[in-house]
């Protein structure tokens, strides 16, 4: 998947400026693709040059004019070809998971702090995505919206984002709790003490040669 496909998918909802597109990415597309505003503006220019989107100037009184974009038939065909192509394996590079993996040889305090911070971020994203879901379905109950909603794709992708962030929040909190409890318990404090090694009595040890020869 390339950024162009995410931009084309976001423009399916209608005509948007680069600024509006950046807002859409922050709220609706962020759960599966991150892009900075500068990347979006550059990609829009490339898409227009390739004929996949069309742009037009909108005159605004009292404000700078803006350029808005819509997907062309060629852009729809590009999305259709992308949707039909085999998907690529998901590549995960998550530095916090690497830190947790190596925590046994490290000071756990910074890792715990980062886990709690990431849990807060996940909770904030989850709240944002849930608000987006409520806005998308309007007055309809979720089950009814999924049956007959006008645009179910953005809703389903946002549902996936909710589940990912919920799992991330729960994993971070549970992992931080385990590491905190382990740090508060000295190593080996919960294990029973090893029994003292038994020392053989004189009667148990084998007799020496001199003792066997001495009849006393």
UniProtKB/TrEMBL annotation:
InterPro entries linked to this entry: Tscrpt_reg_PadR_C (IPR018309), Tscrpt_reg_PadR_N (IPR005149), WH-like_DNA-bd_sf (IPR036388), WH_DNA-bd_sf (IPR036390)
Entry keyword annotation includes Chaperone: no
Coiled-coil annotated residue ranges, if any: 112-139
Transcription regulator PadR C-terminal domain residues: 92-179
Pfam families membership: PadR, Vir_act_alpha_C
Keywords: Coiled coil
Location of the region described as Disordered in the Swiss-Prot/TrEMBL record: 183-216
Transcription regulator PadR N-terminal domain mapped to chain residues: 7-80
Protein name as it appears in the record: PadR family transcriptional regulator
């Amino acid at each position: 998947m390339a950024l162009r496909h995410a931009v084309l998918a976001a423009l399916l909802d209608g005509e948007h400026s680069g600024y509006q597109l950046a807002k859409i990415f922050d709220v609706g597309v962020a759960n599966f693709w991150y892009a900075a505003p500068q990347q979006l503006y550059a990609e829009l220019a490339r898409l227009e040059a390739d004929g996949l989107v069309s742009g037009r100037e909108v005159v605004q009184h009292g404000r700078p004019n803006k350029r808005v974009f819509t997907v062309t038939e060629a852009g729809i065909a590009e999305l259709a070809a992308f949707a039909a192509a085999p998907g690529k394996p998901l590549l995960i590079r998550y530095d916090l998971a690497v830190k947790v993996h190596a925590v046994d040889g490290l000071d756990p305090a910074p890792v715990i702090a980062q886990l709690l911070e990431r849990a807060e971020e996940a909770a904030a994203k989850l709240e944002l995505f849930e608000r987006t879901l409520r806005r998308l379905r309007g007055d309809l109950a979720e089950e009814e919206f999924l049956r007959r909603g006008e645009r179910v794709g953005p809703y389903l992708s946002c549902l996936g984002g909710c589940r990912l962030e919920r799992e991330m929040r729960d994993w971070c909190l549970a992992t931080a709790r385990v590491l905190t409890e382990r740090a508060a318990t000295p190593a080996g404090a919960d294990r029973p003490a090893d029994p003292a090694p038994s020392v053989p009595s004189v009667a148990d040890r084998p007799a020496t040669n001199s003792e066997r020869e001495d009849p006393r």
